[in-house]
Amino acid sequence: MTSIAPPQSSTQQFLSFRLSSTTQAMISTQKLTEILSVSLSQIISIPDVPSQVMGVCNWRGEILWLVDLALLLGFEPLFSQRDYQAGYRAIVVHHRDYTLGLMVDRVSQMLWCDPQQFQPIPSTQMTPTLSRCLQGYWLSEAGETFLVLNAEAIAEYFQS
After folding, report:
1. CA dist., res. 56 & res. 69, Å (int)
2. What residues contact residue 35 under an 8 Å CB cut-off, 6+ apart?
3. Which of these, 139, 138, 75, lies nearest to 102 by C-alpha position?
4. How far apart are CA 122 and CA 160, in angstroms?
5. Which of 3, 6, 35, 57 is most buried (most C-beta within 10 Å)?
């Protein structure tokens, strides 16, 4: 992964990834623990949990809950976006005493941007969960649009 711009005093580092074939997103690296490659054979499904919970896997000898981030936020489920036999990436985030694996198709690169440049998205264009977990959107110098997700809000969604 490469860094897009040199850091300045007001910039923060974000990890970018694909939520769907047409939607890119990013999340602050401040709550990021690591990125895992996860094959379907590593995921143990759990009965009677919300549909966005893909299951659990062993992570450093601990149980890591895996969440289909696209489905959680109101996009097409991860398993229907492409041939899911190849596996996924889990963006492992930690908030307070809670660690969660956010499952995505692929991660892209590290980006540096100024959070003051984030733009709000009208709430009429969002699902309630997306509204709760979104900080806004960011437009890169190359003209690419990224949804800016809040890792704390996503983790708290599952703690409540």
Report:
1. 14
2. 15, 89, 90, 91, 92, 107
3. 75
4. 25
5. 57
- Condensed to tens digits (0 to 9), the pLDDT of residues 7-38 reads 556 889 999 999 988 899 999 999 899 999 99
Q: Encode 4-34: b = buried (16+ Cβ within 10 Å), e = exposed.
A: eeeeeeebebbbbbbbbeeebbbbbbebbbe
Task: Give the number of residues written for the chain.
Answer: 160
- Asked if 74 and 24 touch (Cβ cutoff 8 Å), the reply is no
pTM beyond 0.85, yes or no? yes
Specify the DSSP class assigned to residue 130. H
Q: For residue 109, what are its two tokens?
A: 């690169």
The three-class DSSP label of residue 104 is: strand
The helix (H) or strand (E) run that includes residue 148 is strand 145-149
Q: Is 141 left (phi over 0), alpha (psi -120 to 50) or beta?
A: alpha
How far from each other are the two terminal CA atoms of the chain, in whole angstroms?
A: 34
- Beta carbons within 8 Å of 124's beta carbon, 6+ residues apart: none
Give me the architecture of the 12-159 domain, per CATH: Beta Barrel (2.40)
DSSP state at residue 125: G
